[in-house]
Design a protein that fits this description.
The protein is mainly α. 68% of the residues lie in helices and 6% in strands. The relative contact order is 0.11.
């Protein structure tokens, strides 16, 4: 079931399916459960499931076959581990960017306070 954590449901589902691929619960060549089954399992709409599968396709972890289903690609477990390692780097970079944005916001506030003080001084001296 998708949890109300603030993280989009389709990403939670993609994370869970990715974990299953990485651990071998979904082996190379295995079919993913149908869209209807995934909808029921995660209690979401078909569009949410399709978005999750789209993420996995983009990561080259699964491949769709028209009329047959979606299957785990050969070597997907290794690709998932590599993507996970890259994801942790991305998380570090995002954390640093967040800190930089906060620092810039603080500096902007300090500059605004200085400008306010300087302009008030000029108004009083006139």
């Amino acid at each position: 079931m998708v949890e109300k954590t603030g993280r989009p449901g389709y990403l939670q589902i993609a994370d869970d399916l990715r974990r299953q691929i990485r651990t071998g619960s979904l082996a190379p060549g295995a079919a993913l459960p149908s869209t209807a089954q995934l909808c029921q399992r995660y209690d979401v709409s078909a569009s949410v499931v399709k978005a999750a599968i789209s993420v996995l396709r983009t990561e080259n972890l699964v491949v769709g076959q028209q009329g047959k289903g979606v299957f785990v690609r050969e070597g997907a477990a290794e690709a998932s581990i590599e993507a996970d390692a890259e994801g942790s780097v991305s998380a570090d970079v995002m954390d640093q960017l967040s800190q930089m944005r906060q620092t810039l916001a603080d500096l902007g506030g300090r500059i605004a306070d200085l400008e306010k003080a300087v302009f008030q001084e000029r108004k009083r001296s006139r």
